[in-house]
Write the structure tokens for this entry.
Amino acid sequence: MYFPRLLAMVSLAALSVQPASAAVHDLPSASAESEGMSTERLGRLNMGMKELVDQGRLAGSVTMVSRHGKVVEFDAVGKRDIAANAPMQKDSIFRIYSMSKPITGVAMMMLFEEGKWQLNDPIAKYIPEFAKLKVYGTDANNNVVMKDPVHPITMRELMSHSGGFTYGFFSNTAVDKLQLEADLFNPNNTLDEFIKRVAKLPLNAQPGSEWHYSISVDIQGYIVQKLSGMPFEEFLEKRIFKPLGMVDTGFYVPKDKLNRFAEFYSYDKDGKLQVVGVHDGLNHDFAAKPALSSGGGGLVSTAADYMRFCQMLQNGGQLDGVRLLSPLTVELMHTNVLPANASTLAPGAGFGLDFGIYTDPVAAGGYFGKGSYFWGGAAGTWFWIDPVNDLIVLGMIQQAAGTGAVATGAVPDVRGLSRAWVYQAVLK
């Protein structure tokens, strides 16, 4: 499923550890004017989000903007939990779903820098179970035919959603149905079990033929685990979260933090907000540690934590004296790696290594500096990093579309709206 369409549906050990005495959440802040922006104009972002809450289209939100490495906007509006009348707060915790993917990508590239793998390696080199994967197809009589791949899936294709996999949730192919039947994302599965189940399924398309949103990043989580020799969740905690001071990011919400966990909402057929149950759709019990550490969609986080991650990338791989990646590696991650003949996710957009990239800002809708990179999550979270304008924008909501809600116009295009509200405030 194309990412803009998804957003519309939800609008969708070698490293030194930072000293415990450091203020891990505190990023430098400044007035908008000192960083070339207008405070008055930037206020439209907060006012716009409040209006969406007042209209009943959002329960609440947290937004954060950084310019030249300094936070110039950080606001919370609305409710964390409507029934409990609990206000949204700046430190509220959110299901970030697919915004887990760039974090997994950074983990992969840390191992890339250590020489553990190469972009043109076949993934079967690291997952032998994938050596005999076939491609789903049909003949002239519509009989199912399993075809040989034109070439082995490469790590480059795995990290750019062009390896031929699909997701099960965001499109409706025959292979999607097979994935759903295989129950790949049952939180009681381990990563080992996940890989065993994937190995029994066919590919949705020939490797390198198209961009297609997929389970690729969950597969990457398994590779991180295998190449690092430690559980995937442990690698993220030791090598990324602790060094960056991401104190509220993980695969579940500890008991003492549940009072900060935002409720998850959807829309009914009339466009009214309704709670998404623990066992509904992509949701699960985030109060319990899952067996499956999903690198593609399992993390929870806060706006401040995720901004620290984004600022590390904007800084060329380092934050507060802690370096995770080299500047050249970060640049590689947000370079379009899709083959020229492959379909892309949207006009003006390509794909790098676990990031969407705006290769043509005008075709993509304007404003973005060329090479801006981005992603979002199925509960409506979003972010982008603009290297040209030295700008980072992120937003946290907890809302996915329900049946008929898009037709009613209830689902707001928060990403498109926030783009207008932020960029019109940039004066120099």
Observations:
- Confidence is low (pLDDT under 50) at residues 1-24.
